[in-house]
Structures are given as structure tokens and as C-alpha cells.
Amino acid sequence: xxxxxxxxxxxxxxxxxxxxxxxxxxxxxxxxxxxxxxxxxxxxxxxxxxxxxxxxxxxxxxxxxxxxxxxxxxxxxxxxxxxxxxxxxxxxxxxxxxxxxxxxxxxxxxxxxxxxxxxxxxxxxxxxxxxxxxxxxxxxxxxxxxxxxxxxxxxxxxxxxxxxxxxxxxxxxxxxxxxxxxxxxxxxxxxxxxxxxxxxxxxxxxxxxxxxxxxxxxxxxxxxxxxxxxxxxxxxxxxxxxxxxxxxxxxxxxxxxxxxxxxxxxxxxxxxxxxxxxxxxxxxxxxxxxxxxxx
Length: 295
Prior knowledge:
three-stranded antiparallel beta sheet, alpha/beta, seven-stranded parallel beta sheet, Rossmann fold
């Protein structure tokens, strides 16, 4: 089962699938455009969330970081004058430090594979690219790095556009291209359609390949609002109607099955409807079963 994933929504679904199929059958291509350097370390928020999910370490109250982590280093850094606006746990930071050491000799794909192996993960986590791509939010305060806009600025400056700097020059990772040749079905999870999914599907050869595959997408929108995060504001800034109708149109050239939540009012003509709100583990499993049956 091949997933395209960001750091919110989709990891819950991945955990649901992990409960009903063998983990070794799960492969996840993950967005890397949100990556950012914090206190000298490369933080890969989406890769880390998927990694901790498959390693059964995820803090599933926040859906970032490691369950039960401490924040001694973060707290002390800020006490002595550092402006570390991302709250990074001590064990989480250890993974970032290890990644930095590995990246001196390995690609991001190879480093991610090594970390997954060390954590006992049987599934495969694949960075969408080994090249540097960064998401910026165009706002009244200038072009802000996505994490800076979302966390430091608390998403306050109104987004005017979403920019993916470096994307036009970048290439998908070789492992991403390889797995697209081997799989026949792709699942786009309910991650933010703009900042999480758009960078992954924007590579010309990837999009061309997706058109020849069976692609299933789960909408993150329930009653005109995303389940979490600023997806609606960013869709609007990117020029997309922030509704299920708008998202379905945006995905129309690559998606064969578009799944929306049964709570949606004024549902567009769409025969694939179910409960997509994953409030607990049983919801995750139920949605995974529904999708598996469709496939």
C-alpha cells in the first residue's frame, strides 16, 4: 500500500492500515518541503511524524513528537536566550542530531532508511526528494517559512500565496520513482492538500505516472472546514475553492476515487462517502477497512 503523506491526518490513517495489513506492505512517500533547520539541526516534521507513527512512538495527543518526551534542552535553550519557537523534545532532538550525522555521508532517503531500521520499522518511509525544497507563505510580512508562519506567527499574517522554492529545479527521489513503477494503487491521505500533498504531486514525471495509476484521495474537509490546521486558508491563497467541490476539481486529473465525509452538507455528486473523522483507534481502523474494500 503506497501512501502520499504530510504530517497530519494521513499518519492516523497509516496507523489504521497498520492494524489490518502487515506493516511490511506499507510504503509512505512523505513531503519534505516543510523541513527546516532549528538550533543547527535539520527538522523534518512530516518524516518524523510518519516515522514515530510506524515506530509506535508518536505523541498522538498532539500528533507530533514522541510520546512521553521531555523538553529539558528546549527549555534551557530558551532560558539562556535562544529563540527556539518549535517545541522540540529531547528524544525527538536526538533523532535530528542523528540525522545530521548521517547526512554528512548519506542522502536524506538513505538517512531516513537507516533511522527507520534503528527504530525497528518494517514499513518504508521515502522522502519525496533528496533536493532542497522549502515552502514559504507569501504574506503582508513578506515570504515566511511555513513553520515560521504556522508556529512562530501562529498563522496570523493572512496568506496571499504559497510558494515552493526550489521545486521547479528539484527531482523526485530515485526511490520514489522506483516504487511508482512497482505499485498500481496510490492513496493520498487527508493531509493539507497544499503544503503537504501539492509538493509531492507537482513533479512532472510523478504526475504523469499518477494519471496511469489507481489513485484514491481522502478529503480533510468536513462541512467546509478542515479537520485540523489552516488547509482552507491556504487552499484559498493558492487559488483553489476551499471546499470538497474545489478539492475534487483540483485532484481531478489524477484521482479516481475521491472520498468525502458523510457529514458534509450539500455533498457534490460523489458516491464515495463514509465517516472520515478519526477520533480514536477504532475510527482509524474502520476507515482503513472501508478504503481497502474499495480498492
